From TrEMBL:
The keyword Hydrolase applies. Signal peptide: none annotated. Coiled coil: none annotated. Keywords: Hydrolase. It holds the Pfam family PAD_porph. The lineage of its organism: Bacteria, Pseudomonadati, Thermodesulfobacteriota, Desulfuromonadia, Desulfuromonadales. This is Agmatine deiminase. GO terms for molecular function: agmatine deiminase activity; protein-arginine deiminase activity.
Length: 341
């Protein structure tokens, strides 16, 4: 058997979303955040199908119908959830001899920070009702979140030490053992580790999808802080040097494209929120990029366009999402071509 973890920009069947609801942390701001999810369904469904899980699908259905969403492109499933971060509890798809296979890794609330008992069952519940058709699914004991890894589709994985080596994720594995586990389960040939880089207000212990993203043509889009007075300046400058030191499979430097640094965003208590342009989603024919009503939004769209010149670059206002410390990529999980019946 030959396992391969496809890159996000490879062909997809659909994107999985978990709708916000009253029994989640979104309760105080449902009226603000639901339009973001509606916009995501509208944009994604133009290019591929959308799978939506929610405790109450009838309310979601009426919301989508009222917005004139093409319901032939949407599949709704009544499944209870703790929260909406599908990137981290959704299935990770590998290709097994070019046939898709779903991996259901353990999700423990980003290192036991939050309740995740319902979210950790979503994949198995979807599989049991044949939402994925005949595509096989394997449940894995390894704690792993989709937002913590980036794949180039050729055996290279990019990640951060702070997240994957967190004491509350897989404490029984050291770095070498974890690399071996990733190789066995994902078919990874090599792991590139970043030691520096973080976002204030981030609950994930520095998920790679908030900091640096692998793109076609040995390209990496990464966040760059150009303000020496900002608390992130030193760590992100060190991260940029780490990225310059990385080499492709052919032994060459990566093509690096910096993403602009948005102005600081804070919640009502004055705590900084993790606004980042790196949290974009690649779908068939397009890239959805988080925007924040910031002067740097246009520069971010342009930078992403340099890495994906053959796709439509679509900005999605995500200021409501970062109120719960995540953004656009965090609430989505792509399902590669061949997964759905």
């Amino acid at each position: 058997m030959l396992y391969r973890l496809p890159a996000e920009w490879e062909p997809q069947d659909a994107v999985l979303l978990a709708w916000p609801h009253e029994d989640s942390d979104w309760l105080p701001c449902l009226e603000e955040v639901e339009p973001v999810f509606l916009r995501l369904v509208r944009e994604i469904s133009r290019f591929e199908k959308v799978l939506v899980v929610a405790p109450d699908i009838e309310n979601v259905r009426q919301t989508l119908i009222s917005a004139e969403i093409d319901m032939e492109r949407v599949r709704l499933y009544r499944i209870p959830t703790n929260d909406t971060w599908a990137r981290d509890f959704g299935p990770i798809t590998i290709l097994n001899d070019n046939r898709p296979q779903l991996l259901d890794f353990t999700f423990n609330g980003w290192g036991l920070k939050f309740s995740a008992d319902l979210d950790n069952l979503v994949n198995r519940r979807l599989h049991s009702i044949e939402a994925f058709g005949a595509t096989p699914m394997t449940t894995c004991g390894l704690v792993l979140e989709g937002g913590s890894i980036e794949s180039d589709g050729r055996g290279t994985l990019l990640t951060t030490s702070q997240c994957l080596l967190s004491a509350n994720r897989n404490p029984h594995l050291d770095k070498t053992q974890l690399e071996q586990a990733l190789s066995r389960t994902l078919g990874v040939r090599r792991v590139l580790w970043l030691e520096s880089g973080y976002l204030a207000g981030d609950d994930t212990d520095s998920h790679i999808d908030t900091l640096a993203r692998l793109c076609p043509g040995d390209t990496i889009l990464y966040v760059q802080c150009d303000n020496p007075k900002d608390e992130h300046f030193a760590a992100l400058r060190t991260m940029a040097q780490e990225l310059r030191d990385l080499r492709t499979l052919e032994g060459k430097p990566f093509r690096l494209i910096p993403l602009p640094w948005p102005r600081a965003c804070h919640d009502e208590q004055g705590h900084r929120l993790p606004a980042t342009y790196a949290n974009f989603l690649v779908i068939n024919g397009a890239v959805l990029v988080p925007t924040y009503g910031d002067p740097q939004d246009a520069h971010a769209l342009s930078a992403v366009g340099q890495a994906f010149p053959d796709r439509a670059i679509i900005g999605v206002h995500c200021l409501p999402l970062i109120r719960q410390h995540g953004s656009l990529h965090c609430v989505t999980m792509q399902l590669p071509k061949g997964v759905l019946p």
